Amino acid sequence: MRVLALLALVLAPPAFAGPPFLTDDPEPVDYRHWEAYVFSTYDGSSDARQIQGPALEFNLGAAPNVQLHLVVPWAWSRRSGSRTQSGWGDVELGFKLRFLQETEHGPQVGIFPMVELPAGNAARGLGNGRAWFRVPLWIQKSWGPWTTYGGGGWTINHAPGQRSHTFAGWLLQRDLGKTLTLGGEVFTQGADTQGGHGFAIADLGGSLNFTPDFSLLFSAGHTIRGERHTVAYLGLYWTSGPATPHGPRS
């Protein structure tokens, strides 16, 4: 049983959501705009190491308040006592729909359902083995240089050794002028593997905006409760379209 639990941990999909944080936001890409990320993520525990990178994320403002989403990663996985495996990882597809606009006194609200397609080799620890789904609800409010957002949802995963589970997170960030944004979050989720345990992570990060449409994104965090994880994100961000927005949204 311990061997099965350890294998399930290696095959477990990474939990990263809104670059560069685990928590996401409800704000879609503006209509007729696009944004692209080239990034790497790290998730290390006492039993395994998982890296995605180089990976590509592409988001398109397909309609007002609607964003289409794609992530294609190269994956690396190493279980304690085993050789490092590498190859294509699972492909992520999704769409973000904002159904409530932010007002002076009220937040914006949206959903961001995703499906992970089993493109990676599960036997080598590079994928989940079956399609799995994430269905979250996100809320955001801004005032001056401050922005806060968060929410949660349900992950549906019926692959061998995996468990469906809930997740939730909340983040607070501040713009420090036009070039730097810093923030911190707490993210928690239930056990995602058979024999595994839930956890909560505290994460710090932000973005360095070289131009209004080109930025460096970064974050790092560690478990504060439950199953041990050390996580990190590093990526480059581009955006373009009519009246290009100022830097990444998260």
Identify the CATH homologous superfamily: monomeric porin ompg
The number of helical elements comes to 1
Average predicted confidence as pLDDT: 89
Indicate the CATH architecture.
Beta Barrel
* CATH third-level topology: Porin
Question: Stretches where pLDDT falls below 50 for ≥5 residues?
Answer: 1-16
Shape, principal axes of CA atoms:
globular
Features:
disordered N terminus, Porin, single chain, 250 residues, 14-stranded antiparallel β-sheet, 1 helix, mainly beta, globular
Describe this structure in words.
The chain has 250 residues and is mainly beta. It has a single domain (2-240), classed as Porin. It is built from 1 helix and 14 strands; from the N terminus they run αββββββββββββββ. Strands 1, 2, 3, 4, 5, 6, 7, 8, 9, 10, 11, 12, 13 and 14 form a 14-stranded antiparallel beta sheet that branches. The protein is globular, with a radius of gyration of 17 Å.
